[in-house]
Amino acid sequence: MDALPLLIATTLSAGTVLAFAALGLLINERAGILNLGAEGMMLVAALAGFATAVHTGNDWIAFAAGMGAGALLAAAFGVLVIWLNTNQYATGLALSLFGTGFSAFMGLRYTKETLPARPEWNYAGLSHLEFVGPALFRQHPLVYVAIALTIALAWFLYRSRAGLVLRAVGESPESAHALGYPVRRIRLAAVMAGGALCGLSGAYISVVYTPLWVEGMVAGKGWIALALTTFATWRPARVLLGAYLFGGVTMLQFHLQGEGVDVPSQILSMLPYLATIVVLVLISRNAAWIRVNMPASLGKPFSPGS
């Protein structure tokens, strides 16, 4: 029983990484933009957040730096695909490759840097409650922010006029443009908001989740977050649940190793990616279900004059 609260706590922390990135990508895709550059944005943001934490000693400034780095890269991506109509798939892959290489080069001087011990969080004594305390109430505040953000995003998309406009842009940009909405600017704002959340995810990794900088430390989480949006059929609540599911699979490997399970470590390390493949295969078997839920203009360019 002592291991179960720890597993729940680590699952929430690991799921938060995926939740922020996937919610950001969901905003992009609801506006009709497919960004395959999440991995690169998260790596650059992880470096920006870690470097800022090293020089300032303030985690919240580090998170802001990570969000800024992610939004900046997303803005460059947005200009290319929204105004210059470059291929969204190729541009996203280029962004991912750029972020991987740029972060590796610029991060050389930070590989030996360390951050001070992170504070232990105690919310009105709740962390001392039996079982639920260590499982739920010793988390970094951003874990709870991810939950609140999911609720806020669901309300925004389905209960607000601005969310309706965003979804309209993703479904039929031509109709939204005919009604007088600035489709390109709305899409750019969505892309930058998504990039900022991917940046927050990257900074959370390097500042809280594993407080250090190592080349390639995102380790495919950007791609898992991208798959998670499809797995969740572009719905915020399902994104959060899926993030915790994949987070739990990720942390399960370490707990099994800690319990001395006689399974090769390489097989345990494969579990998160194997789970991703299995889920995508199961979803792909029902193509009509994906088409019903997927934004109709996803990945398609839009030119006001056409």
From TrEMBL:
Its main location: membrane. The keyword Membrane applies. Keywords: Cell membrane, Membrane, Transmembrane, Transmembrane helix. It is found in: Cell membrane. The keyword Electron transport does not apply. GO terms for molecular function: transmembrane transporter activity. The chain crosses the membrane at residues 6-26, 33-54, 60-84, 91-110, 141-158, 188-207, 213-232, 239-258, 270-290. GO terms for cellular component: plasma membrane. InterPro entries: ABC_BtuC-like, ABC_transp_permease. It is a multi-pass membrane protein. This is ABC transporter permease.
